[in-house]
């Protein structure tokens, strides 16, 4: 700790004076002061008086009580929050403090319990109280708590594809279709342009940035989507066999380039039509493995075959 | 559908009476213990059905026995099947004639016969071979290949005569087919390697004092394989008059050739020809590659246009692969307008055509071709500039498909076709197609994902595929249970505890392809059985060996109906020949009642449907087999 200037105080110990002195000290050392510092500052004050003053300040919400390696620390509390906590008891303030410290990431109720050493029932009561006062909120699974006015971090909610821990299947599907339509149209225009083959091919590609821009402009997403998000959607189109990707080297600073590379996507046709086997009943038969000549299910008495012939 | 009649033509080999009778028991047992081929029950059943359909009961019995037991000597076969020696000989005769059974001389002069199961299954593909010959060399080519397939092996003179006769039947009154024209087509088939000479007994230069070997070893020189003998075949096809038919209605060809009417010796005695199935397979492979390139690079990305183009494209595939210029220009002028939009695939087709004879069918790449050479070999009248060609070649080489590769810069750029890669891609696409149709597009997404990423954990699959956990798990297990996907365990700790083990999903194309291939044969069994029940009575007087209980009534009905319809047709034909009146013909036709006519229509329709289905399933079989073969050769 920094050197403390020792001022010699008059012997009269007015409680208010003591409190003000402590406040001043706290302002001097915004990181917090120990009991020792106060003692040094006002050596003539008895421990009892000191304790009373500190307690009063704490209950008024002007001081924060913290624990450090060396002992207890007293810290000045920001004035804006001091008003909020009026009417809350110490325990609530403690819990609030813990949640505040968790910041953007929020904190599990179990962790709050560990940090505050309060029993579970108390915690739940306090959390309910705080929630009703709209000072905190439950993000995602309702077990992670954070301050009300903060935006939850992506990793907690599961990213753009989750809302309240539910995977947004439909949303992903819609994006998938829209991206494909965009690429499909681009490829068609390129082919119909009847330019020389090189130009035709190059203009049938779209960079991930282009697709991202198109989707953003469409405005179908209420959540903000990043280029990486669009790339994960485009990847699903690759796994659908509808789109192919190539990576080209791009100058640093080119729009849409990342680390000197750019990803280009293009709509493509499958190389074979649905294969012959699937046009026979056996190709799609659900009981194929049970089918033996002479068994209950056999090629000779196959009902699928009969239906197929009558079709 | 081409029906195959049982024919006993000149046996080419003499059978040896088994020497070393004391070895019989030993060698017989050894064969039985020998590992059976990996043929599944479905495949064996299919072989049985095919042999039955084409050659009858006895050949089927012997053939299936050999497939099941491996190679055996003559006497053991007779003993084990309870068939007379004479009948076994005749059956083996037929099987060897059709390349379905081979023989080998073992030590101490024991000759053993072995069935070629995969070759038996090739009989399923006969329609495709014949159709290909038709598209390349029109009706003449079609009939030549058909005769060779139906008879196994034939002399050229015999083929020419037979085909000329058959073609003459179909022509207008007074017109006949000249032998010379048929010969020409035969020569072209030989030049392009679609037919080849059979191995022969080698000419014995040094007169060996010892006894002749129990069975001859047949050889053929590489350079002689496609050499057409200098024959002057002069004549015209003859129409078959009704008096030529036997009383029983059996065709003339049933009699062995050496007792035909004309006792002249055939000029090319001893030189026999057969269809070269490998060459046809090469053609199918090339077709597959070209159509894949067309689908990926030439077609507009929209469904209906794609279908229209692929319709035209199928027609385009009838482009003759022969080198004669006249043929080229004829086809070119008809289809030039579509060529311009199919450039990528046309270039690939040209490259494949240039490599036909120079690259062996099992090579992973074609020989490198220079851009200049390719430019010169483009079809006559196909006008794209050299620069445009180079652009397309660059695009093909750069494409993620990787079907075309650049191997050098001389001659304007050296290019190869990656045959093995192409077959792999086609096999993969086949697997994906089956997964898609059977399990749905979400499952197909997961399949392609695992394929591309090689190894993935459950969670990774969910995240990459963007499919909810429950659904993803369900789909993975479904594919796992059907062996499209497999699971690899990688333990983190020596105790292999499940909670500390990585479970990775992976796709092994080779084993998945094998699994799917085995599946392909069941539809054939199904359709063979159905068809056998439908029309076996029409074409062979033998009754079907295994009549299925449920179908017994229907079969009897069908049989009666078909026989009736046959009789009516025969009556009408003879009445027409003797100049009957319209009214009389009408009366006869009415012998078949309306519901019966309906039934016949349904029968005909079902048979056609089954035929078409078989051809489609065979496409899948071909792609999978080619890939497996190509992969096994590399290992």
From TrEMBL, chain A:
Keywords, alphabetical: DNA-directed RNA polymerase, Nucleus, Transcription
GO cellular component: cytoplasm; nucleoplasm; RNA polymerase III complex
Gene Ontology BP annotations: transcription by RNA polymerase III
The keyword Transcription belongs to this UniProt entry's keyword annotation: yes
Keyword Metal-binding recorded: no
Chief location of this protein within or outside the cell: nucleus
A Pfam match: RNA_pol_Rpc34
Locations listed in the record: Nucleus
Gene3D superfamilies registered for this protein in UniProt: Winged helix-like DNA-binding domain superfamily/Winged helix DNA-binding domain
Job of this protein: DNA-dependent RNA polymerase catalyzes the transcription of DNA into RNA using the four ribonucleoside triphosphates as substrates. Specific peripheric component of RNA polymerase III which synthesizes small RNAs, such as 5S rRNA and tRNAs.
Subunit description: Component of the RNA polymerase III complex consisting of 17 subunits: a ten-subunit horseshoe-shaped catalytic core composed of POLR3A/RPC1, POLR3B/RPC2, POLR1C/RPAC1, POLR1D/RPAC2, POLR3K/RPC10, POLR2E/RPABC1, POLR2F/RPABC2, POLR2H/RPABC3, POLR2K/RPABC4 and POLR2L/RPABC5; a mobile stalk composed of two subunits POLR3H/RPC8 and CRCP/RPC9, protruding from the core and functioning primarily in transcription initiation; and additional subunits homologous to general transcription factors of the RNA polymerase II machinery, POLR3C/RPC3-POLR3F/RPC6-POLR3G/RPC7 heterotrimer required for transcription initiation and POLR3D/RPC4-POLR3E/RPC5 heterodimer involved in both transcription initiation and termination.
Family stated for the protein in its record: Belongs to the eukaryotic RPC34/RPC39 RNA polymerase subunit family.
Protein name: DNA-directed RNA polymerase III subunit RPC6
Species for this entry: Balaenoptera physalus (Fin whale)
Organism lineage: Eukaryota, Metazoa, Chordata, Craniata, Vertebrata
From TrEMBL, chain B:
RNA polymerase III subunit RPC82-related helix-turn-helix domain mapped to chain residues: 45-104
Major location category of this protein: nucleus
Region (Disordered): 235-268
Keyword tRNA processing: no
Domain DNA-directed RNA polymerase III subunit RPC3 winged-helix stretches: 431-507
Basic and acidic residues bias: start-end ranges: 249-266
GO BP annotation list: DNA-templated transcription
Location of the RNA polymerase III Rpc82 C -terminal domain: 184-305, 342-425
Record's GO cellular component terms: RNA polymerase III complex
Keyword vocabulary terms for this entry: DNA-directed RNA polymerase, Nucleus, Transcription
InterPro entries tied to this protein: POLR3C_WHD (IPR055207), RNA_pol_III_RPC82-rel_HTH (IPR013197), RNA_pol_III_Rpc82_C (IPR008806), RPC3 (IPR039748), WH-like_DNA-bd_sf (IPR036388)
Subcellular location: Nucleus
Molecular functions per Gene Ontology: single-stranded DNA binding
Gene3D superfamilies attached to this UniProt entry: 6.10.140.1450, Winged helix-like DNA-binding domain superfamily/Winged helix DNA-binding domain
Similarity annotation: Belongs to the eukaryotic RPC3/POLR3C RNA polymerase subunit family.
Function, as annotated: DNA-dependent RNA polymerase catalyzes the transcription of DNA into RNA using the four ribonucleoside triphosphates as substrates. Specific peripheric component of RNA polymerase III (Pol III) which synthesizes small non-coding RNAs including 5S rRNA, snRNAs, tRNAs and miRNAs from at least 500 distinct genomic loci. Part of POLR3C/RPC3-POLR3F/RPC6-POLR3G/RPC7 heterotrimer, coordinates the dynamics of Pol III stalk and clamp modules during the transition from apo to elongation state. Pol III plays a key role in sensing and limiting infection by intracellular bacteria and DNA viruses. DNA-dependent RNA polymerase catalyzes the transcription of DNA into RNA using the four ribonucleoside triphosphates as substrates. Specific core component of RNA polymerase III which synthesizes small RNAs, such as 5S rRNA and tRNAs.
Assembly and oligomerization: Component of the RNA polymerase III (Pol III) complex consisting of 17 subunits. Component of the RNA polymerase III complex consisting of 17 subunits: a ten-subunit horseshoe-shaped catalytic core composed of POLR3A/RPC1, POLR3B/RPC2, POLR1C/RPAC1, POLR1D/RPAC2, POLR3K/RPC10, POLR2E/RPABC1, POLR2F/RPABC2, POLR2H/RPABC3, POLR2K/RPABC4 and POLR2L/RPABC5; a mobile stalk composed of two subunits POLR3H/RPC8 and CRCP/RPC9, protruding from the core and functioning primarily in transcription initiation; and additional subunits homologous to general transcription factors of the RNA polymerase II machinery, POLR3C/RPC3-POLR3F/RPC6-POLR3G/RPC7 heterotrimer required for transcription initiation and POLR3D/RPC4-POLR3E/RPC5 heterodimer involved in both transcription initiation and termination.
Name of this protein: DNA-directed RNA polymerase III subunit RPC3
Top-level taxonomy: Eukaryota, Metazoa, Chordata, Craniata, Vertebrata
């Amino acid at each position: 700790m920094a050197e403390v200037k020792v001022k010699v105080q008059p012997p009269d110990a007015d409680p208010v004076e003591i409190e003000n002195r402590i406040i001043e000290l706290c302002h001097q050392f915004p990181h917090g002061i120990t009991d020792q510092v106060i003692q040094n500052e006002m050596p003539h004050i008895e421990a009892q008086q000191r304790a009373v003053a500190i307690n009063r300040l704490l209950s008024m919400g002007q001081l924060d009580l913290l624990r450090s390696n060396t002992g207890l620390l007293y810290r000045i509390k920001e004035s804006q929050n001091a008003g909020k906590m009026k009417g809350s008891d110490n325990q609530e303030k403690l819990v609030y403090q813990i949640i505040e410290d968790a910041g953007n990431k929020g904190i599990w109720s179990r962790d709050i319990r560990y940090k505050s050493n309060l029993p579970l029932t108390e915690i739940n009561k306090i959390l309910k109280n705080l929630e009703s006062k709209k000072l905190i909120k439950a993000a995602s699974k309702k077990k992670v708590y954070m301050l009300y006015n903060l935006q939850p971090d992506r990793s907690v909610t599961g990213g753009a594809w989750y809302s309240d821990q539910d995977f947004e299947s439909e949303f992903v599907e819609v994006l998938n279709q829209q991206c494909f339509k965009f690429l499909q149209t681009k490829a068609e225009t390129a082919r119909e342009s009847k330019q020389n083959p090189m130009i035709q091919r190059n203009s049938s590609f779209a960079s991930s940035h282009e697709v991202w821009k198109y989707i953003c402009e469409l405005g179908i997403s209420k959540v903000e989507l990043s280029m990486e998000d669009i790339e994960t959607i485009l990847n699903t189109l690759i796994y659908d066999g509808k789109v192919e990707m190539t990576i080209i080297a791009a100058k640093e600073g080119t729009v849409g380039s990342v680390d000197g590379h750019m990803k280009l996507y293009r709509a493509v046709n499958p190389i074979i039509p649905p294969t012959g086997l699937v046009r026979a009943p056996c190709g799609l038969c659900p009981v194929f493995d049970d089918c033996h000549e002479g068994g209950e299910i056999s090629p000779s008495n196959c009902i699928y075959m009969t239906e197929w012939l009558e079709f | 559908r081409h029906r195959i009649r049982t024919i006993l033509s000149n046996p080419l080999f003499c059978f040896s009476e088994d020497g070393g009778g004391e070895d019989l028991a030993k060698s017989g047992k050894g064969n039985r213990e020998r590992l059976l081929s990996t043929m599944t029950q479905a495949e064996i059943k299919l072989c049985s059905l095919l042999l039955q359909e084409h050659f009858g009961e006895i050949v089927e019995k012997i053939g299936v026995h050999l497939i099941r037991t491996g190679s055996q000597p003559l006497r053991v076969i007779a003993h084990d099947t309870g068939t007379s020696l004479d009948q076994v000989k005749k059956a083996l005769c037929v099987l060897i004639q059709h390349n379905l059974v081979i023989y080998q001389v073992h030590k101490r002069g024991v000759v053993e016969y072995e069935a070629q199961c995969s070759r038996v299954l090739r009989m399923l593909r006969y329609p495709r071979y014949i159709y290909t010959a038709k598209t390349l060399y029109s009706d003449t080519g079609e009939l030549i290949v058909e005769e060779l397939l139906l008879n196994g092996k034939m002399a050229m003179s015999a083929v020419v005569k037979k085909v000329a006769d058959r073609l003459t039947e179909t022509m207008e009154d007074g017109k006949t087919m000249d032998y010379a024209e048929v010969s020409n087509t035969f020569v072209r088939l030989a030049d392009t390697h679609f037919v080849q000479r059979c191995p022969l007994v080698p000419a014995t230069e040094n007169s060996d004092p010892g006894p002749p070997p129990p069975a001859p070893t047949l050889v053929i020189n590489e350079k002689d394989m496609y050499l057409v003998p200098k024959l002057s075949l002069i004549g015209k096809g003859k129409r078959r008059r009704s008096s030529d038919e036997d009383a029983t209605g059996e065709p003339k060809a049933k009699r062995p050739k050496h007792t035909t009417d004309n006792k002249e010796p055939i000029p090319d005695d001893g030189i026999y020809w057969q269809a070269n199935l490998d060459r046809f397979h090469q053609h199918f492979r090339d077709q597959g590659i070209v159509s894949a390139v067309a689908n990926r690079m030439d077609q507009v990305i929209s469904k209906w246009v794609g279908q229209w183009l692929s319709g035209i494209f199928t027609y385009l595939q009838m482009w003759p692969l022969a080198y004669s210029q006249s043929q080229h220009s004829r086809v070119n002028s008809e289809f030039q307008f579509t060529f311009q939009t199919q450039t990528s695939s046309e270039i690939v087709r040209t490259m494949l055509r240039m490599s036909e004879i120079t690259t062996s069918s099992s090579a992973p790449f074609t020989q490198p071709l220079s851009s200049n050479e390719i430019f010169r070999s483009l079809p006559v009248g196909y006008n794209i500039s050299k620069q445009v060609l180079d652009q397309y070649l660059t695009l093909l080489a750069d494409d993620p498909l990787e079907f075309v590769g650049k191997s050098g810069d001389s001659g304007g750029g050296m290019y190869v076709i990656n045959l093995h890669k192409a077959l792999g891609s086609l096999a993969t696409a086949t697997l994906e197609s089956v997964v898609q149709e059977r399990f749905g597009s979400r499952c197909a997404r997961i399949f392609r994902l695992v394929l591309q990423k090689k190894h993935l954990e459950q969670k990774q699959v969910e995240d990459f595929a963007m499919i909810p956990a429950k659904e993803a798990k369900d789909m993975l297990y479904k594919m796992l249970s059907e062996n499209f996907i497999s699971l690899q365990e990688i333990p983190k700790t020596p105790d292999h505890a499940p909670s500390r083990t990585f479970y990775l999903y992976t796709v092994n194309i080779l084993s998945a392809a094998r699994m799917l291939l085995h599946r392909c044969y069941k539809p054939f069994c199904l359709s063979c059985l159905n068809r056998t029940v439908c029309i076996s009575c029409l074409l062979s007087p033998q009754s079907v060996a295994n009549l299925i209980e449920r179908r017994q009534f229907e079969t009897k009905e069908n049989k009666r109906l078909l026989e009736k319809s046959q009789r009516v047709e025969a009556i009408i034909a003879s009445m027409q020949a003797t100049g009957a009146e319209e009214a009389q013909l009408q009366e006869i036709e009415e012998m078949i009642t309306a519901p019966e006519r309906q039934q016949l229509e349904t029968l005909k329709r079902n048979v056609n449907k089954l035929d078409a289905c078989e051809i489609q399933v065979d496409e899948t079989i071909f792609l999978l087999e080619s890939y497996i073969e190509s992969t096994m050769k590399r290992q």
